[in-house]
Structures are given as structure tokens and as C-alpha cells.
Amino acid sequence: MIRRAGKEDADVLAALAIRMWSEHDPDELAEEFRELIGNEEAVCFLGCVGGRPIAFAQCQLRHNYAEGTQSSPVGYLEGIFVTEEYRRKGYASQLLAECEKWAKEKGCAEFAGDCELDNVDSLNFHLATGFEETNRIVCFKKKL
């Protein structure tokens, strides 16, 4: 079952998200999810099996620019995660469909996302669900 997450789900979302974004602090993630859920331009969905959360997706509106898009706002898939034992069973596609439906309801004509260059699973998921690749970049930094 896929359902829209509420503020009471912030800790559950953070527990799932930390498995994908391990460099973050779980408490900070939970606070970010509480803020996002209260924002009209963002939404999170949970995938549950037998009442147990096994997946989530986070999307929001981007107004300035999303790589390769022509319109604004654009629905943007900020993150999607399914626990390993439930992968390849359609949960990610169902979560994405809910995100796309939400973006359409918000007036979006386009939907976008991204992944790290070495994240082959995410790349394959995006391509398999109708996304087309628009660009690849490598980012740099240095301390001054």
C-alpha cells in the first residue's frame, strides 16, 4: 500500500532515508521531513507491507531550473528508496506514480530527477520508468 506521509511519519521517513543518505544525521533528516511535509510544494509517500514501512519517495516543486526541462514549476524526484528485500516488486514505480500524480495536480507539465554517476540501479530505474537522460556532470571543489 502507498500512502501520503504525515508529520507523524517523519522519524519513519528518516529511518528509511538514512539507509540511502548515510552521510546525514537521522535527527536532522527527521526534522527536514517534518518541515517538508508542512510545505505545500513538497510531498513524501510511504510504501507499506502489512502496515510496516518498506519504502519512501520524496518530491517537490522546482521553480528555477531542472536540467533539461522547458517549463516551471517542475516536479522533482528528490529521493526514492525501497528496502532491499522488497526491490524489483513494483514499489518504486508505484511511489513514482504517486509523485507524478501529485506534480500534475500542482500544475506541472514535466517531472525530473537525478542520480549519482555511479548509481547504476538508480539510472536503470529512471530509464525503465520513462525518464530520458539529459546531461552528465562531475562537480569539483577546493578549499581556499
Number of helices: 4
Q: Which secondary-structure class do the elements indicate?
A: alpha+beta
Cα distance spanning the termini? 50 Å
CATH superfamily membership: Gcn5-related N-acetyltransferase (GNAT)
What global shape is seen?
Answer: globular
Strand order across the largest sheet? 1-2-3-4-5
- Radius of gyration, whole Å: 15 Å
The CATH topology turns out to be Aminopeptidase
Total individual domains:
1
Strand content: 15-25%
Taking pLDDT < 50 over at least 5 consecutive residues as the criterion, the unreliable ranges are: none
Major sheet details: 5 strands, mixed
- Helical fraction: 25-40%
Provide a descriptive summary of the structure in words.
The protein has 144 residues and is α+β, with helices and mostly antiparallel strands. The chain has one domain (2-128): Aminopeptidase. It is 31% helix and 24% strand. It is built from four helices and five strands, in the order βααβββαβα. The protein has helices at 10-17, 26-37, 91-105, 120-128, and strands at residues 2-4, 42-49, 52-62, 74-82, 111-113. A hairpin with a 2-residue loop joins strand 2 (42-49) and strand 3 (52-62). Helix 1 packs across helix 2. The radius of gyration is 15 Å and the shape is globular. The N and C termini lie far apart (50 Å).
